[in-house]
Design goal:
Strand order of the largest sheet: 1-2-3-4
Shape: rod-shaped
Distance between the termini: 111 Å
Largest sheet: 4 strands, antiparallel
Radius of gyration: 39 Å
Helix content: 25-40%
Strand content: 15-25%
Number of helices: 2
Length: 182
């Protein structure tokens, strides 16, 4: 039901006063013909909020990806360390005169680490495959090399393991050294 009032009439004034009581957001001193105050966000405010939200999500996702890459690298290092330790324990179990400890094995670099750039000695190299993910049947291949250096009556065993095939850049082989003495 629509009512019509003449402007300035007592009925129009009563209507405006009642609207002010019903709607406290109705601007004081405004006539009934005007719209109430608009509330909300402007387009510029929404664009800035969207930009801030997008930057936050992108930075969060980059941290997640970095954490996943670090976890994968850590798993590779742990597996290589385990294989190096296993080979080192197998070699240490032999007596000093055993034929397995009489070969020189793979070459060492100037820093005393196994040189994977040189050709592998087949007598002192083992390739193993480890299961990474049973559900996806993902395997990783590792190459373990060792060198036995004779220094007087002591034998220095150097063992190193690295992932073969698609090694991420910047990863170095895990190197372990032990000295055997009579």
């Amino acid at each position: 039901m629509r009512r019509s009032f003449s402007v300035g009439s007592p009925a129009a004034t009563a209507f405006v006063n009642r609207q002010i009581e019903i709607n406290p957001r109705w601007p004081a001193g405004k006539t009934a013909l005007r719209h109430p105050v608009q509330e909300g966000f402007t387009l510029v405010e929404m664009l800035i909020a969207s930009l801030v939200f997008t930057v936050a999500i992108v930075s969060l996702m980059s941290m997640v990806l970095f954490a996943m890459a670090a976890r994968y690298s850590s798993r590779l290092d742990s597996a290589a360390l385990k294989l190096s330790q296993q080979t080192l324990e197998e070699l240490k179990a032999h007596p000093l005169e055993h034929p397995a400890l009489s070969i020189s094995g793979n070459l060492l670099d100037p820093g005393g680490k196994i040189d994977f750039a040189a050709a592998a000695d087949p007598q002192a190299t083992v390739t193993r495959q480890l299961l990474l993910n049973a559900a996806r049947h993902t395997n990783l291949n590792f190459e373990t090399r060792w060198n036995i250096t004779i220094s007087g009556s002591r034998k220095i065993i150097t063992v190193a393991t690295r992932k073969t095939g698609g090694t991420p850049p910047g990863t170095e082989p895990v190197n372990l050294k032990v000295v055997l003495a009579p």
